[in-house]
Design goal:
heterodimer; A: mainly beta; seven-stranded mixed beta sheet; four-stranded antiparallel beta sheet; 0% helix; globular; B: mainly beta; six-stranded mixed beta sheet; 12 strands
């Protein structure tokens, strides 16, 4: 069983289109994330949700809208795609720990390679 | 911004050599978490280790070992007797108490047969 699964794995689309990437985790984790990896391999957090509540929004253009229907799912919708949105998008999840001990390690999906042409 | 710096962009070694990947972090937090992830050519991100800021004990797992030194804000990763399958991009990351990871730039490790 795949712990964190994203679909699709590859997405090629034209500028101006709207697209969605889906993510599901079967680990029972409370927190889910979206990270973006650019062409230089740099990884940067975009959003995180804890029990369906937005916790982190890292100055991402509002063309990007995450949606969490339940704590096992965190989808990413992108409007009006631009060339600069081409990247690999990773979904991840982790478990809150009690008593201020933070979160467990994040488990990542296999990534979605988005190419905007 | 509190950065994570991996000064080595690329490292190339021959199989069976030992190799150390450096990681230096910045933080204003009293409590924080440090991680290493591996990204093989297939592209997925594989968790290797998590350390808490209040636990400076070093760790060994097979051919992998990690040296955490708060005094120098470093969390270095050593692979002993490297193998071709170790070729990957390795990322160091610092985590906050609410789960946000700040990654270093990554170190590309190539192990030649």
């Amino acid at each position: 069983d795949t712990a964190v699964s994203q679909t699709p794995k590859y997405l090629v689309t034209q500028m101006g289109n709207d697209k969605s990437i889906k993510c599901e985790q079967n680990l029972g984790h409370d927190t889910m994330y979206w990270y973006k990896q650019d062409s230089k391999k740099f990884l940067k957090i975009m959003f995180s949700y804890n029990n369906k509540e937005l916790i982190i929004n890292e100055t991402v253009p509002n063309r990007f809208s995450p949606k969490s229907p339940d704590k096992a799912h965190l989808n990413l919708h992108i409007n009006s795609l631009e060339l600069g949105d081409s990247a690999v998008y990773f979904c991840a999840s982790s478990q809150d720990l009690i008593q201020g001990r933070g979160n467990t390690e994040a488990f990542f999906g296999q990534g979605t390679r988005l190419t905007v042409v | 911004a509190q950065k994570v710096t991996q000064a080595q962009t690329e490292i190339s070694v021959v199989e069976k050599e030992d190799v150390t990947l450096d990681c230096v972090y910045e933080t204003r937090d009293t409590t924080y978490y440090l991680f290493w992830y591996k990204q093989p050519p297939s592209g997925e991100l594989v968790f290797l280790i998590r350390r808490n800021s209040f636990d400076e004990q070093n760790e060994i797992s097979g051919r992998y070992s990690w040296n955490f030194q708060k005094s120098t804000s470093s969390f270095n990763f050593t692979i002993t007797a490297s193998q071709v399958v170790d070729s990957a991009v390795y990322f160091c990351a610092r985590g906050t108490s609410y789960g946000k990871l700040t990654f270093g730039q990554g170190t590309i490790l190539t192990v030649h047969p």
